[in-house]
Design goal:
70% helix; globular
Length: 454
């Protein structure tokens, strides 16, 4: 008898207990739950010959973006491939996706997952995996297209509909449809109260529309939507800190850094990116962050040879340059240059464009060479979406680019980028933009006072 999972997709499992763990693992994954690896571990104990479980384990490892766990992902792939003859078409697509991702070609991995969605559009696991892989390469339009292809096939009572709407909300936000994103994210939480991704999508809308007070009100009292999370919970607290920063409540933002965002000193690149980008923003506003860079630099110094994701590497570099780790910075720059020179895989091509220019800009900014920093960061800027992450996450590089231009005295060029940043946010101006616009206006008045000839 063929068994099916909670999304009515066939699974090559014979044991009902194994199916229950598969379902529990999927549900936890969709909610970014800390129990995801626990259920996966139990599943592999019950059904060690289930190829899809090994493939998913490998994908989870690969998405961690750390060199040392890639070995574990390769082992998982080898196990999955050895068991592939007993897998169905859906399960084989997971193996193919893992293989291509580990080969450095996430877009090809996405194609494998999308092939499943073409025949099984209500497979919420495949939908979420496609979404996660597209996030790695910053493919907002692709996220939206993928979700909107399958959206009409979901009935109101489909158990994955809430999580689908959460992904749709995030994709809508990343493609600038803020009003629909907010409504869709709220609908997602109504159907799936533990959908941290949907809650987070609405939070992004508040960030992009410069409504920090509204964002704080949105998060207030909704901790249940992310209390169950893995390290994604730290990211939600990071968003709250950004709102506090925008409101000028710097002490509160810094306190949140200590008590929530870095309450656990993990070396997960996502946690390090939260921390480094927040400290960078605070320092750009003149806040003394003390010795907080030191801990992050200690961890980042061990990552100079990673080369798994350019998004991660750039945040490691933020820690190294801000803590004055010249030797480690030089090692990372040399490795980035070597990766860029190869440019064979998709990941290596991202090291070249935009990675190398962005890295050179960050290095120069750390050295106080703002002219060089501005030139390099401005060259990287049109391609930065390919580095992955969200608009809110990549905004730290926007701010560093603009501030480098201001410090280099290139006011006209910096003003143009500032105006473009605001335009990309639907015309909404946050406190950062208002302060820089005011600074530029005052500088122009000084250089060309009233009554003086131009």
């Amino acid at each position: 008898m063929t068994r099916h999972d909670l999304f009515d997709q066939p699974v090559s499992l014979t044991d009902a207990a194994a199916v229950r763990e598969w379902n529990a693992m999927i549900s936890a994954f969709l909610a970014h739950g800390a129990m995801t690896p626990v259920h996966l571990g139990k599943l592999l104990e019950i059904a060690p010959d289930f190829a899809a479980a090994h493939a998913v384990k490998g994908l989870f490892y690969a998405l961690l973006g750390r060199r040392e766990v890639m070995h574990e992902a390769q082992i998982a792939l080898a196990c999955a491939e050895a068991l592939e003859s007993g897998a169905n078409a859906r399960e084989r697509s997971l193996i193919v996706a893992l293989r291509h991702f580990l080969e450095g070609d996430p877009s090809v991995a996405i194609t494998a997952i999308e092939a499943t969605l073409a025949t099984a559009p209500t497979d919420t696991l495949a939908m979420k995996l496609s979404h996660a892989l597209r996030f790695v390469i910053g493919d907002g339009p692709g996220m939206r297209q993928s979700v909107e292809k399958v959206l009409p096939t979901y009935d109101d009572d489909h158990p994955g509909r809430g999580y689908l709407l959460g992904c749709h909300a995030f994709a809508l936000e990343e493609t600038g449809d803020y009003a629909r994103a907010a409504l869709t994210g709220r609908a997602a939480l109504t159907l799936a109260p533990d959908d941290a991704w949907g809650l987070h999508a609405v939070t992004h809308v508040y960030d992009m529309t410069a409504d920090a007070r509204g964002g704080l009100d949105w998060l207030e009292g909704r901790e249940a939507a992310w209390i169950h999370c893995n390290n994604f919970g730290f990211h939600v607290w990071w968003h709250k800190a950004l709102m506090l920063l925008d409101l000028g409540r710097m002490d509160e933002a810094l306190d949140l850094y200590d008590t929530r965002i870095r309450s656990e000193k993990t070396d997960d690149y996502r946690d390090i990116s939260n921390a480094t980008s927040l400290l960078s923003r605070l320092e750009l506003e003149g806040v003394d962050v003390g010795r907080r860079w030191e801990e992050l630099a200690d961890l980042s110094e061990k990552r100079t040879e990673d080369g798994c994701l350019i998004f991660a590497d750039l945040h490691y570099l933020l820690a190294l340059t801000n803590d004055g780790r010249e030797g480690a910075t030089a090692r990372m720059m040399a490795r980035l240059a070597a990766d860029a020179a190869r440019s064979g895989t998709e990941i290596e091509r991202l090291m070249a464009v935009p990675g190398l220019n962005a890295a050179r800009g960050l290095e120069a900014f750390g050295d106080g060479d703002y002219g060089t920093a501005f030139a390099a960061l401005a060259r990287a800027r049109p391609h930065m979406q390919g580095a992955g992450g969200s608009h809110a996450q990549r905004d730290v590089f926007e701010r560093l680019t603009i501030d480098a231009g201001l410090r280099a005295g290139q006011l006209t060029e910096a003003q143009a980028i500032l105006a473009d940043r605001t335009a990309r946010r639907g015309g909404y101006e946050d406190a950062y933009a208002a302060a820089r616009r005011d600074l530029i206006a005052r500088a122009e008045n000084v250089s060309c006072p009233k009554g003086a000839s131009a």
